[in-house]
Amino acid sequence: MRRLSMVGAVLIVLGANNAAVAQSTAGATLAVELTVEPAVALPGGTVTYTITMSERGDVAWTVLSMSDTARGDLTSPANPAIENSTCAVPQLVSRDAPYECSFDAVVGGYVGDIAGTFVLVGLVDGAGETLDRSAPAFVDIAGLTDLVVTKRCLQDPVVLGEGLLEYEMTVTNQGSEVALNAYLLDRVPQDTTFVSAASDRGTCDFGCPQGRPGRAIGCVGRGSSGYIFLNYVYCELGDLAPGEVATITTTLTPQTIGDFTNQASAIGWWQQPGIDGIVQQRELDETDNTQHVTTRVLAASQAVTTSTAPAAPTELPFTGFGAGALVALAMAALGGGGLLVVLRRR
């Protein structure tokens, strides 16, 4: 289970004509938005928050202060918790004058966390009507691991009753950080019988990986004829340093003809200090963590065979030859041409 880590809340206090801000649920046409770039960052990485305010009606607002409860005053150049802040007060916000400012801040939390920051807006118009507005922004905290999966079937197609579905998979850490507790999950296709699974790193097992590395995976799914029980090959590969590769092989026996699709995914697990249990280790690129391959199983009658029987001899017309022709035929036969001469009397 991933954890939401609230870094702090950005508090923006606005007032019309410098009036005091009061709490109210009155309506308003002021929009406040908080965005963050990048949306995925490393623990301790720096991101840029942007605050945008716009007025869709005819009310003019004055921004009196902006602050983050964890980082303090966002308008102070002396604030050590932020950098490169363009936020300043006082500011006018109206239909013709939207306001935008930004600041850089360090992301706190652990790999797998979601670091959240909320913009809180308090405002009042000249008539004393007040309004609260809030807008969130979230950052996924990732690691510099990049687990890449490859998968291939060693034989395609396979003849039912004669061949096996043999798969080879690799898990490579192409990142610059150790992939902790690397784990391969390979869903076994229906209508197959498990034969074997092995890895040159760690251990592999077969069945329902209930409760494996902090993960309670469901092993019942919906098939074309109702609910079905799902089986997996699951391999605990240990820690994969940058550049290290784990190779896994699995063997299955197909029970029917058709196309069999096999999909494998790799993930890492991160032990959070002070937290009971482990969570999925985030990567900056998760598009290459899954790979699938489809293999066709044929009936014996569908298999293509190649005949090795010799070709039928070709009969050529013969009109006679002299000694020179006999020598040429003898040389051709001795040269390995496999020449067979049959003379027939007409």
Q: So, CATH architecture of the largest domain?
A: Sandwich
Judged by helices, strands and strand pairing, the structural class is: mainly beta
General form: elongated
Kindly state the percentage of residues in helix: under 10%
Name of the CATH homologous superfamily of the largest domain: ntegrin, alpha v. Chain A, domain 4
Number of helices: 1
Measured distance between first and last alpha carbons: 94 Å
What is the domain tally? Answer: 2
Strand proportion: over 45%
Helices and strands, in N-to-C order?
EEEEEEEEEEEEEEEEEEEEEEEEEEH
Number of strands: 26
Please describe the biggest sheet, giving its number of strands, its sense, and whether it closes into a barrel.
7 strands, mixed
Highest-level CATH class of the largest domain: Mainly Beta
Could you characterize what this model shows?
This protein has about 350 residues and is mainly beta. It has 2 domains: about 5-140, Sandwich (Immunoglobulin-like), CATH 2.60.40; about 145-300, ntegrin, alpha v. Chain A, domain 4 (Immunoglobulin-like). It has one helix at about 325-335; strands at about 5-15, 30-35, 40, 45-55, 60-70, 70-75, 80-85, 90-95, 100-105, 115-125, 130-140, 145-155, 160, 165-175, 180-185, 190-200, 205, 210, 215, 220-225, 225-230, 230-240, 245-255, 260-270, 280, 290-300. The strands form 6 sheets. Strands 1, 3, 5, 6, 8, 10 and 11 form a 7-stranded mixed sheet that branches. Strands 13, 15, 17, 22, 24, 25 and 26 form a 7-stranded mixed sheet that branches. Strands 2-4-9-7 form a 4-stranded antiparallel sheet, with no helix packed on it. Strand 18 (about 210) and strand 19 (about 215) form a beta hairpin. The radius of gyration is 36 Å and the shape is elongated.
